[in-house]
Amino acid sequence: xxxxxxxxxxxxxxxxxxxxxxxxxxxxxxxxxxxxxxxxxxxxxxxxxxxxxxxxxxxxxxxxxxxxxxxxxxxxxxxxxxxxxxxxxxxxxxxxxxxxxxxxxxxxxxxxxxxxxxxxxxxxxxxxxxxxxxxxxxxxxxxxxxxxxxxxxxxxxxxxxxxxxxxxxxxxxxxxxxxxxxxxxxxxxxxxxxxxxxxxxxxxxxxxxxxxxxxxxxxxxxxxxxxxxxxxxxxxxxxxxxxxx
Length: 245
Ligand SMILES: Cc1cc2nc3c(=O)[nH]c(=O)nc-3n(C[C@H](O)[C@H](O)[C@H](O)COP(=O)(O)OP(=O)(O)OC[C@H]3O[C@@H](n4cnc5c(N)ncnc54)[C@H](O)[C@@H]3O)c2cc1C
Fold this sequence. Notes:
This protein is an alpha+beta fold.
């Protein structure tokens, strides 16, 4: 067997940020086949029958050869389908990755709850060297003051949202009162292993915003690595250590 059996991962949920999470809903190869993700990649490269292996040593060597030489299409044979709850500030960036397939919860259909808003643990300071990044944290007193103000702002927005709903305004319009970047949304998101590696390389990097970096890191540590241990080893060796590739 090339790696851990995939069935232990389907249904697994990992907490992220204050109220978010990532859950693996399904994956390809299906756990029912008993074929690991790494072996599915190797099999695709050999265009052979599912489950056929030339032994762990040759299989692993072939997988490393594929990734090292950018022979990427076999990695598209492994797919991950997640359910993810994340604030819109995270989705705003995630949705830029066009190779993912998404389906989002409808704020026109389901009303939002009072605690559906992201409250950060710490307020990061503006980075001096990078206009797009943050660096360090504000002092504890300022931190608490900003968090209190944020919670007041959320309460005010949510009260107005409820007031509008009670006045008969549609959900699609009442939500204009909600703080847009902070509201949590649940999406179903599907991607293959090749394009997931591209996403992870960009979004686990230190210059990615923290609110997406923690999701990317959780996907890598909790799902990608256990599902595809050989691929992860090759990925760290050939892609993450050589960012230009
Ligand atoms: C740190 C950081 C800062 C960013 N800042 C900004 C910003 O300020 N403003 C902004 O608008 N965006 C910003 N982005 C988003 C960035 O510009 C990309 O849109 C995003 O990273 C998706 O990259 P991608 O094209 O590699 O991914 P995907 O869309 O997943 O595509 C993967 C690969 O598929 C191929 N591909 C997909 N679609 C096409 C297509 N239509 N035509 C040709 N090839 C295609 C390309 O090879 C592409 O690299 C930022 C991203 C990062 C990581």
